[in-house]
Amino acid sequence: MFKSGRYSGWLRPISYGIDLFFIHFFAFEFFGTPFPYFNYVVFLTLAWLLLSLRSGFYEIYRFTHLSKIMYLVGKQGVIFVLIVFSFFGFYNELTTSASAIFKYVLLVMACITIMKLAVFFLLKKYRLHLGGNVRKVVIIGLNQKTDQLRKFFTNNPVYGYKLYRTFDLKGSNKVSIEECMDYIMKEEIDEVYSSVAEVGNKDLIKLIDFVDNNLKILKFLPDNKEIYSKKLDFTYYGVLPILSMRKIPMDEPFNKFLKRSFDIALSLIVIIGLLSWLTPLLGLWIKLESKGPVFFKQKRNGLDYKEFYCYKFRSMKPNPMAHLHQIKKGDERVTKVGRIIRKTSIDELPQFINVLKGEMSVVGPRPHMVSHTHMYAERIDKFMVRHFIKPGITGLAQVSGFRGEVESESHIINRVKYDIFYLENWSLFLDIKIVFQTIFNALRGEEKAY
C-alpha cells in the first residue's frame, strides 16, 4: 500500500509499460511479418529496462527541471539507436534499410517524449487545481535559508509540497526536537527539511535515527554557501565514505562521448559548409587592407592549464603588443574589416579548427591570453577551476552578458561564477541552448563586440 502524497507507486511501472508499447507496436508496423518479432520483443524489453535503469531515464521527480528531462530523452534516444542497430546486426540476414530503422527510432522517441512531457505537466496541473499528489512537509530551524524554502513551497503549489509548520529551535518560541518528532508522527508528515546550522549534533543524531526508524524522508538546507551548496561527489573507499568537492558531468564516459560527438559534428558543418568558401573571400579582403597573415594565432591556456594556439581571422594590424594587451573600445589597431568581423563574431570561426583538433569545445569557458591567465590565477579566487574542462568558442558567461573586454575585477569574477556553474551543471541541452543564444546575439549585434 502506498503512502498518500508519495510519488505514485504505479506511475513508474505504467511509464515503462507505455514506452515499451510504443517500441513494440511500431516495430510490428515498420518491419512486417517476416521479421523475428518475438525475439525482438524479448531483446528490446530486457535491453530497454536494464539500460534505462543505468541511464536514469525514469528518474524524474516533481522538482526536475525541463532541461534535465530533455537531456534524458536525448541520452535515451542515443541508447535506443544502439540497441536497435545491435539487434539488426545480430540478424544480419534481415534486409531492413538504415533509413527505415532511423524513422522507426525517431517515431518511437517522439511518442515517448510527448507522453513523458504530458504526464509531467498534467501532474503539475493535478497538484495545482485538484490538490492531489501532495507531500506533507515541515521545516526545522528558523533562519534566512529556511524562510526562502518556506516562500518556495508557498509560491510554487505546482510542485505539490504542502508546508504544515516551521519549527524554531532557538528563538523565543523555541521547541525541542522531541516536540518536532511528535508533531511529525501526529500529522503523518512525509518529508522533513532541516537547517544544518540550527540543529545541534545531539539533536541531529536523534532526528536521523527518528526518520530512519519511521520511514520519513530527511533533507538538509546548506548554510555554508561555499561548501554545502556545491554538487559534492559521494563515494566509498572500502567502507569509508569520502566526499569530493564537485562532480563534473563531462568526466562520465557517456557524457564525454556525447559532447565530443556534438563538437565534431558542428565543427565539420562549419568548416565544410562555411569556412571552405568564406576563408578565401575574407582572406583576400584582409590582405588588401593590411599586410600580414590571414589567420592570427595566439597562445591560450586550455584543459589542465596546457597551452595551445588559438586561431582567429586577423582583425588587427600586426603589432608586437597583440599578445599582451587586450583590445579596448575604439582600439586603433583594429582594421576596417576587423571591426565588421569582430562585431559579428566571424573572427572566431577558425576556432572550429581548434575544436576539431580536440584543443577546444564549441561551448565552454572562454580561454584567456597566457599573460592574463597567470594574472587572474593569482588574483581571482577559483579562477583555475575553469581549466578542469576544455575552453569553448562561446560559453554561458558570454551569452549572459560577460563577453569581450574585462572592464573591472567584478566582471571576471562573474565570468568565473558562470563558468563554474556550467562545469558543474553541463548537459547537451544546455550546450544547444548556448549555441542558439550565441547565434541570436551575433545577428542582433552586441554592445561589447568590438
Quick recap:
The protein is of the alpha/beta class and 450 residues long.
Please give a structural write-up.
The chain folds into three domains: 11-130, no CATH class; 135-229, Rossmann fold; 253-444, no CATH class. The chain is 52% helix and 12% strand. It has helices at residues 11-31, 37-55, 66-90, 98-130, 144-155, 177-186, 201-213, 253-289, 336-343, 351-357, 370-379, 396-399, 409-424, 428-444; strands spanning 135-140, 161-167, 191-195, 217-221, 233-237, 240-244, 295-301, 307-313, 361-363, 392-394. β1 (135-140), α5 (144-155) and β2 form a beta-alpha-beta unit. It starts with 10 loop residues before the first helix and ends in a 6-residue tail after the last helix.
The number of helical elements comes to 14
How would you state the average pLDDT, rounded?
82
| Main sheet makeup | 4 strands, parallel
* Beta strand %: 5-15%
For the secondary structure, the number of strands is 10
Structural class: alpha/beta
Q: What is the fold's blueprint, element by element?
A:
Blueprint: H1 11-31, H2 37-55, H3 66-90, H4 98-130, E1 135-140, H5 144-155, E2 161-167, H6 177-186, E3 191-195, H7 201-213, E4 217-221, E5 233-237, E6 240-244, H8 253-289, E7 295-301, E8 307-313, H9 336-343, H10 351-357, E9 361-363, H11 370-379, E10 392-394, H12 396-399, H13 409-424, H14 428-444
Parallel strand pairs: 1-2, 1-3, 3-4, 9-10
Antiparallel strand pairs: 5-6, 7-8
Helix pairs in contact: 1-2, 1-4, 2-3, 3-4, 8-10
Write a concise keyword list for the protein shown above.
single chain; 450 residues; alpha/beta; Rossmann fold; 4-stranded parallel beta sheet; two-stranded antiparallel ribbon; 52% helix; 12% strand
